[in-house]
Structure formats: structure tokens, C-alpha cells
Amino acid sequence: MPNRLDFYTLRLFAGPFALALATLLLAQLLERLLRLFDLAASAGAPLSTVLLMAANLVPHYLGLAVPMAFTAAIFMAVARLGDDNELDVMLATGRSIARIAVPFFGVAILLSLLSLYLFASLQPLSRYGYHLAMDAALHTGWDAKIEDRRFIDTGKGLVFTAKTVDADGRGLEDIFVEHIDAGREQITTAPRGRLVPSDDGTRLLLTLEDGLIVREESAQRLSTLSFQRALIDEDFTPAAPPFRTRGDSVRERTLAELRQDMRSSGARGEAAAEFHGRLARALVLPLLPLFALPLGMASKRGRRAPGVVFASLALLALNHAMQFGESLAESGRADALPAVWTPPLVFAGLGLWLFRSSLAWPGDNPVTRALAAIEAGFEGIIGGLRPRRRRRPA
């Protein structure tokens, strides 16, 4: 059962984790926000559209930031225990390194479940929402010209057409307008008309000359009205083309949908690569304490830079190796199962070897010894290049 030392360790972990996660998210979002603001300014989209696109990007960047923040937080928490000699006290009282690592493995399992939900459904839906908001931003200034002899649906209960349309797309002849409101139909016809912008410039209104209105008053009664000039105060701006449905890309499909696609396409192809790639990224989180804990204990003497560099390179290499395996499976050159899962298995073996080697001698592991040897070699080379002072003769 968890005790006070576990909760104390988690308190040391929580602050750096929240700080690292927020920093990584902001760093990734800020770069994308600059491009989104440029896009919105050029298209005339409102600020709310930019904020909606940024919100849909959060699940994607969260999946990238959680492993890095989790590793950094473990490293900083364990290094803090070592700096205050609290780690030595725990070990002296009989608390093993494996027992110290239990709270971190518990958090890793919770984060793994969160990542599984993130990769399974939240990321695909938010990715489609981002593209949908992007399409809405690009069509903010939609001002398509009307084509003759074609019915135009404005998407607001209005359908109209014209036999002849001027070159500018605004002057109309032989006009037919159908308006359905509250289940009742109204037909308006006119030999001439023109689309004119509203006072605020956000809508297109229709002016008609010498026309006729036929309105359905009830199931048995129609009313007619002729006019010389009229203005229909409705929005006749043609609706933008509809955006595609979700699922055209495998990255927009949920894990359950990818599983169904795999039954027909087999163990190769985009669906299989995406399915195994998401599972592997969610289940790799419990392996991260195997790296971060030994490296954090080895930084007790103030040498934290080598451990941080090694952990960053290990995560970077794992990510690129998994991406390479996914590309092999997508192209059909390898099955997704071995191509995607081989890098996490190698990473797990390396982590177990590193963690197990630190059990015998806390603070010492093969990585720190190798880095110390490399550092000593560089110091020897630099020392050999320094000019030696000549001794003056007595």
C-alpha cells in the first residue's frame, strides 16, 4: 500500500511534470499559432476560428509532450532526492530502488491509459475537427459567382436559379426563387434582378423587377402578389462546398475503425501501421521509469547534463525507429507487428538492463560509466592540444 514516502515522492514529481508538460505544449502551439494567425489574416477569418483550430491541436501535441515531460519529471524528482541526501536515507532504512520506483510505475500506468484514450478516439476526432475548422477559415470570404441554368442552394431554405447571368455573376434574368419557411412554400419569379451586397457587406440580397409571388397559405389556398420592384432580405450567398467526411485518412479513424479495416487489408498497409503505432506509443510509457530513475540517481554529484542528453536521444531514437517501422508497414514491405513493435522491445530490454545494473550500486550504471569515459577522453585530447610552458634554465 502507498505510504508517506510514496506521496512525498509524487509531490516532488508533480510540480516538474506540470511545468514540463505546460512548457512543451506552449512551445509547440506557439509555433503553429503564428502560422494560423497569418492564415486567418489573409482569409479574413475571425479570431474564434483560430482558437478552435488551436484547441483541436492540443490532443496531438499532448501525445508528443507526455512522454518527454514524464521522463523529465522523474529525472528531476529523483535528482532532488539525491541532492538533499534523502535518497541515501531511504536506501539506508532498507527501502529498495525498486520500491522507490513503484509510485512512478503507478503514474506511468495511469498515463498509459490516458494516452490509449487519446490515441484511440480523441486525436482522430480532433484532427478532423482541425481540418474542418481550417476549411471554414479558408471559405470565410467565399464569394462564388452564380452560374446560369443551375439551381443554387444557399443552405438556408432558399433555392434559386436564373436563365441568364451577367459576366460579373450578379445581374440575373428569368429568375426563379423557392423559399420554404415553416413547411410552407413560396415561389417568386421575375424577368430581371440583381444580387447586391447588404449594408454591412456580409450578405448578398436579391432585388427583383416586375415579378410575381405565389405563396402557399394552406393546403387548399394559394395567394398571388405582383410587384414592380422588390428586395428579398435573405442571404443569397452561395453555400461553400461541403467538407469531406471523416475517415478519408487513416489518421482520422478511431482505433476500433482501424481494427475493422485490418480485417480486410491484413497485417500490412496504412491501417495496420497506424493501429500498431498508436498502441505502441501508448504502452511505451511504463518503460520510461526504467531509464529516468537510474539516470536521475546518477546525477547526484551535479552531473545532470549527460543524463538529460542520453534520455532525450533515447526517446528521439525510439520515436524515429517507430516511424520507420510504420513507413515499412504502410508501403507493404513488412508486417506491422514486427516492424512497429521491435523498437519498443529493444528499448524495453535496454531499460531493464540499465535499471537492473543500478540495483547493485545506486548512482552507477553503464551509461554514466560510458559518458565518464568519453568525457575523460575529450579532456585528455584537449589537454594534449594545450601548449606546454618551457622551463627556464637555472
Automatic annotation (TrEMBL):
InterPro entries: LptG/LptF_permease (IPR005495). It is a multi-pass membrane protein. Keywords: Cell membrane, Membrane, Transmembrane, Transmembrane helix. Pfam families: LptF_LptG. Its main location: membrane. The chain crosses the membrane at residues 12-30, 61-80, 100-120. It is found in: Cell membrane. Belongs to the LptF/LptG family. Part of the ABC transporter complex LptBFG involved in the translocation of lipopolysaccharide (LPS) from the inner membrane to the outer membrane. Component of the lipopolysaccharide transport and assembly complex. The LptBFG transporter is composed of two ATP-binding proteins (LptB) and two transmembrane proteins (LptF and LptG). This is LptF/LptG family permease. It comes from Banduia mediterranea.
